[in-house]
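Retro notes, item 3 of 5
We never archived the inputs for the adenosine-5'-triphosphate complex last cycle. Fixing that now. Sequence and ligand:
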Amino acid sequence: MAVFTEVPADEAADLMRRLGLGELTALRGIEGGIENTNYFATTDRGDYVLTLFERLTPTQLPYYLGLMKHLADRGMPVPEPAARSGDGGPLFDAGAPASACPLLHTVAGKPAAVVRKLEGRSELAPTADHCSALGDLLAQLHLAGRDYALEQPNLRGLPWWNDTVPVVLPHVDAAQAALLRSELAYQNHIAASSAYAALPRGPVHADLFRDNAMFAHDGRGGTLPRMTGVFDFYFAGTDTWLFDLAVCLNDWAIDLPTGRADAARTEALLEAYQARRPLNAAERELLPAMLRAGALRFWVSRLWDFHLPREASMLKPHDPTHFERVLRERLRAPQVLALHAEATAEAQDA
Ligand SMILES: Nc1ncnc2c1ncn2[C@@H]1O[C@H](COP(=O)(O)OP(=O)(O)OP(=O)(O)O)[C@@H](O)[C@H]1O
Ligand SMILES: N[C@@H](CCO)C(=O)O
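Structure as it came back at the time:
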């Protein structure tokens, strides 16, 4: 995480006290992440993460914080945002003003939230077993989110790509510009299709990369990795479940240096996901298109972050060309995954 806004220790201490989380003993800015300001805040009661939202507005935030609470209430390993104690304000009331949301606070003049720090660490070189754990949890998250009361579009969805591609075009070479334009046209065409309209949808994480999940390395999962939770729901939104799955496949099941899909990890992730929620016919048809959509989404956002950066200490923008490679790979070899998804679904039906 980058630190865009410096938080005075006394202000953080005051917030932790007001939230009933104890006396602050340490406050440390977190490196890694590019969106928000994050601090580890330790109190005599435990370890927490304090997030100051740098781009999202107070009106948008109850959706994300309420979703985390909704999922945590249903037993999902998602950090539950701390509520102002004794505050009976509505968590899920779409009509309520953001200031009434008891999960949303103000720190250093910015909207802020506090969540429990998950134990463990991210697995940055995941095996097929890690991908299985992720696929299993992703399907559970999708199912647990079905009855979430609030709706908000994925703010990094197609309308944002349409707005942002023209902004980044002056910063790329001719071949890249041609690919961005043609892929954007293709995705607009897909979004208008009846197969796309038939895709199941609901609240999705939409940014569930390897660095947004934690695994314990304490041996309590036996021979299998034990996932302690997933976090960073601040790109979540109402979107297709298939897009969320594609975002995960494009990160967890990719060989990072080449952008190539890894067959064993792809299979593990898809199998575990489908053991909980088999893909339907429209999803099987559109998986290759959504894998391209997922690559385009992060190529565009990385180009935007890279060429139009914000002021922050500890900010390390991600490499945009990685997702150009992933997109080119998805274009070069689309059929492998489509066939695989079909085979897996048939096995489930048998
Ligand atoms: N609930 C949590 N438990 C443990 N660690 C956390 C938690 N939330 C954040 N972190 C740590 O803070 C780092 C940055 O957080 P995060 O990924 O949310 O940053 P960001 O800038 O908001 O997001 P992005 O990944 O979109 O750039 C994470 O990599 C992780 O190390
Ligand atoms: N996960 C994103 C960063 C946050 O959107 C990326 O790797 O580009």
